[in-house]
Amino acid sequence: DIPSHLDDLPPTMLKKDYANLPIMNSVDDVVKRLLSLELASQREKLKVKTQQLVEKVRRSPHDNGSFELLSLSFAVAILTAKIRTLEEHLQRHPKDKRNRRFMLMGLDRRRKMLGYLRRVNYSTFEKTCKELGIQYSPPQPYTRRLTKRWMVKKALCIKVFQEKQKLQAAERLKKRREWQARARAAREQQE
Questions:
Q1: Which of the given ranges, 57-61, 73-77, 104-108, 143-147, has the highest pLDDT on average?
Q2: Measured between alpha carbons, how far is 76 from 54 in angstroms, rounded to an integer?
Q3: Phi then psi for 36, rounded to 5 degrees?
Q4: pLDDT higher than threshold 60 for residue 67
Q5: 3-state secondary structure of 73
Q6: How far is CA 95 from CA 2, 81, 87, 91, 173, in A?
Q7: 105 to 44, 99, 101, 114, 136: CA distances (angstroms)
Q8: Where do the structural domains in the chain lie, given as residue ranges?
Q9: 97 and 80 Cβ atoms separated by less than 8 Å
Q10: Which of 81, 67, 77, 79 is closest to 121 using CA atoms?
Q11: How far is CA 162 from CA 80, 171, 172, in A?
Q12: Is the pLDDT of residue 90 over 80?
């Protein structure tokens, strides 16, 4: 009873391999039914859905992903189809750790690709997210969890740094006075 992202595929639609064959217009209805999505496996339906998502991202019909960013959009579309399929599987089988790991790895790869696309070409990024229905949120900046041990260590480091600054200040003052004395001596010799 869990809704699938493959439910919007019409059952009369032909499988990906047979969709563009000219002979399909003249075959029997039984053969068409066998080659349609009605009796297709999950994998074959996923191929058709992936092709649809890639078509959404494609700019023009002659675009085959030759441009680097466009091929990145295609990769994001393919990953999105796989992720959605794994999400549905995990709703039915919540204890499946292996597929959960694959889904999380796919989410991470897609997030990295979208982050790169966002930095390089924001308009393509926006179009890709809009067409695929992806909600992108940038990663949170790194924050360290404060522990008592870390705070004590940080305080010690600050104290050592300040002591070293005091010692260096005394040395700098000593060198400055020497330099000023040499400069006075040099002026007196010139006069």
A1: 104-108
A2: 9
A3: -90, 175
A4: no
A5: helix
A6: 17, 21, 12, 9, 69
A7: 23, 10, 6, 14, 16
A8: 16-132, 144-190
A9: no
A10: 67
A11: 53, 14, 15
A12: yes
- Tokens at 136, concatenated: 């992108």
Amino acid residing at 139: P
| pTM, full prediction | 0.59
Residue 10 predicted with pLDDT over 60:
yes
| Residue 106, pLDDT above cutoff 60 | yes
Mean pLDDT within 13-26: 71
H runs (alpha helix) in the chain = 29-34, 42-57, 68-92, 97-120, 122-132, 148-190
Structure token digits, residue 68: 């680097």
CB-side neighbour CA atoms (13 Å) of 179: 6
For residue 47, the one-letter residue type is K
